[in-house]
Amino acid sequence: MKDSEANLLRVAVPMGLMLLCVPMLAQNAAEAKSQSTAAKDAGATQLDRVVGIVNGDLILESDVDEERRFAVFQPYSEPTGSFSRDQAIQRLIDRTLILQQAREQPRKPITDTEVQANLADLRKDILACKQYKCETPEGWHQFLKDNGFTEEELLRHWRDRMETLQFIEDRFRMGIRISDQEVQDYYTKTLLPKYAARKATAPKLDSISDRIREILLQEQVSALLEDWLKALRASGDVRMVTADEVTR
User: Fold this and answer.
1) What is the per-residue pLDDT across 181-194, written as a single tens digit (0 to 9) for each?
2) Residues 170-192 as b or e (16 or more Cβ within 10 Å = b)
3) Whose CA is closest to 64, among 82, 83, 79?
4) DSSP 8-state class, residue 59
5) pTM
């Protein structure tokens, strides 16, 4: 499949499911590095502030800063735009809810070897990595450093990401069936118009039917996940903490 065809299919993946695992547009490396340094300097003179509580688990200001910097490590993210503080807090709340539920259900733990293998593949898909030559150990370590992460911190974050995806996969994908007619309808009504708008030749349905089926499955998983998270928020003790509340 040509790059242009792959890109059209890639952008068709629903953003609901990506909410927890593929943050929005990342900060550039210089800005992220500057914020990381500032946060560390500030930490020497003031306590880390609580910004959210999720069933007793605390979300700290440093977690929010780390989450925003982590955005650059997501596959196909562009090093432009902004990922707001409030977006980061909401994502941390949702991910904390999922991990709380996941850890109540015994499952085979994700090993360091699996995390490292996943990260090795990731290096090929981070757009900002190209200028660093992340395929080399030196380039990868420099990329980590410029974005304010150590190897251990990234491993921890990526393990959480993999656990989140694993839980979503196990809980929501089972039982979902995508019919051939749904695949045909998506190809005809959604994909073909996109290719036509770009004056590009669309691939044959047979060559991308599996990919379309996956997109449709993810859309259904996204809808189920969103409803489930709303229910967890409503039934649990979940709230954001303002600066005024902390100083009272």
Assistant:
1) 999 999 999 999 99
2) ebbeeeeebeeeebeebbeeebe
3) 83
4) E
5) 0.75
